[in-house]
Amino acid sequence: MTAAWYRHFGSVEAPGSSPCYAEWTLGIADDPEIIARIDRWPHDKRQPNLLLAAARYLGAVPGPFEQFRDFLNARWDDVSRIVLSRSTQTNEAGRCATLLPSLAAISEAEGKPLALLEVGASAGLVLYPDRYGYEYDDGTTVTRLSPGPDVGAPAGVPILNCATTGPVPLPASLPSVVWRAGIDLNPLDVGDPGDVAWLEALVWPEQEFRRARLQQAVAIARQDPPHLVAGDLNERLLELATQAPDDAALVVFHSAVMGYLTAAGRTEFRRTMQHLAASRGVHWLSNEGHMVIYQEDGSNVVPEIDAQRILGRFLLTHNGSPVAITGPHGQSLEWL
């Protein structure tokens, strides 16, 4: 199973984004010795991104798989220590580009500013869609959106580039956000150099633009740190949602989080969101991979979307209804 996991990552997820990670994970998949070592870790610690980030955190440099294998052999105890003490908490500000049209539409429809609550928030960098710049390219026209002149940071304002397909409802301006909060099992602190170094290690090789963007987003978050609480999302969600201001449109959202929950956990979360929608009119944006299609229990919660269609990408839903197919790092937005 572990070998198949790494082979899928190397043949489906990494190609086109990181040839280095594609080569490394395909090499691991064909290496019984490394697979056996990985299988000694708890199941939730075996994912490719976590091992790769741990190695990069410790200084592994892009290169041939043989070189990487030598690094793993020499530093396995250290890699294991990082893997067991950390988790994959990729905090990709670029995902704001795929969420922004929906967020702006919600704000306009409600006639209110936004209150944002992210589950699985990591360091909370996706809680600042109003602080970033955007460039949407449909192949013919580039639409640019910028934050107000009062937004700035020592590292500059990141520009999020997104290729669009279909009738994406791009807003004329950025929505106003008056409250932002997040939940994570282990929130990362933008003021902690070790946490920021871990976020940088989670950026894939060949994607230095993402690393630069991360540094710019961290600088913005440090000016106005988000309110993050530690805990299980199903245990803390209702409590945190009550803290949002009543005169704002509350949006609960998440990206690449549901795969870490059990089938029962995902069912409980859906019920909580249905309760919040009925009791307060909360909006729910889900930006997830194929786990939103096929659940652990065999059920299919979005039957109108073929899982093959979103292979290697995410499905964005608004209150359970499919809206768009998105690039996992916010690089593309295909409106449905």
What does this structure look like?
Helix content is 38%, strand content 18%. With 336 residues, it is an alpha/beta fold. It has an eleven-stranded mixed β-sheet with strand order 3-2-4-11-10-9-8-7-1-5-6, sandwiched between helices. α2 packs across α5 and α4 crosses α5.
List the helices and strands and how they pair.
Blueprint: H1 2-13, H2 19-29, H3 32-38, H4 48-57, H5 65-85, H6 96-110, E1 114-119, E2 133-137, E3 142-145, E4 159-165, E5 177-184, H7 193-201, H8 208-223, E6 227-230, H9 233-241, E7 249-255, H10 263-280, E8 283-288, E9 314-318, E10 321-326, E11 332-335
Quick summary:
With 336 residues, the protein is an alpha/beta fold.
Give short descriptive properties of this protein.
single chain, about 325 residues, alpha/beta, eleven-stranded mixed beta sheet, 10 helices, about 40% helix
